[in-house]
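Section 5.1 Outputs to date
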Amino acid sequence: MKFAIFTVGAPELTPQEVLVKLKEYGYDGVEWRVTDPSDAAPDAPADFWENNRCTIDVNTVVEQAPAIKAMCEEAGVEIAALGTYTRCNEYDKAENALKAAAAMGCKKIRISPYMYDGSQNYNELFQKAREDYKVLEGLAKKYGVKVNLEMHMNTISASASAARRLVDGLDPNYIGVVYDVGNMVYEGYEKYQAGLEILGDYLDHVHIKSAAWVQKDALADGSAQWEVQAMPLNKGSVDFRTFLKVLKKSGYDGYVSFEDFSKEKTTLEKLKFNIGYIRGIMEELKDE
C-alpha cells in the first residue's frame, strides 16, 4: 500500500509547502483538493472548507496541469488522485478534470454522486446517477483516467452496498469507488470485510479518518441528543487494526489517503503522527 493525504486536511499550507512535508514524513503521493476558490477574504483564517490554501482551482486546473505535474515531480511525490467536488451531472467540469488528470499523469479523479436530503425520491436520484456515471464512463475511456465515486454520508452512496449498486455493470477499469472508513461512522457502516467484498473490483481508493458519536444535549424529557465529531485516528470509533487487516487480506495495494478533520493536533503534527500510527499497525499485522 502507498500513502497520501487529501489536501483538504492541510488548509493552511500551500501546495509547495505540503509537498515538502509529505516527502519529509515519508508519504508517497498527494490527492489534490480541486474545487471552486473560497469567497473568504485572503487574510481570513485557513479552514478545511473556507480559505483552504492547499486547493487547486477547478476552473483553471487544465491550464495549471503542467506546472502541478512539474512541481510534484521535482518534490518526488506522485499525484495519487484529484479530489474534485464536481457532481456526476456536471459533464463539462468532469471532462476538464479528466483532461487535467491525463496531462498530469494522474490515474483517477473523484466525481460525486447526488446528495440525499429527502426532498427528492431516492430511487429517482439513483437512476439518474446511474445514467450520469454511464456518460462519465465514456469520458473516462476517452482520457484514460478512472472516475471514482466516494462512500459519503448524506449521499445516495453512503454504504459499500449502495455504492456497488450504483456502479454495478459499469467497467471497473474506468469507474470505481473510494472506500471511506471514517465516513461510515456518520452513516452507512457495514462490516469492513463485507464492504470490501461487496465492492470487489470496484474498490479503487481508500480514505482514512476517524470520528465518534458524542452526546450533544438532552431534551426536557431526558432523551439524549447525539452528533458525530471528527476524532484523531487513535481516539475515534474506527477499528483500524481490523480494517487494515481485512484490507490487506483483500489484496488491496493502492493508495490509502488521509483526510483528518480532527483539531487536537496541528496539521504538521497530524501529518507526522498519522502515517506513523498506521504504519505501526501494519507492522504489527505483517505476519498475520
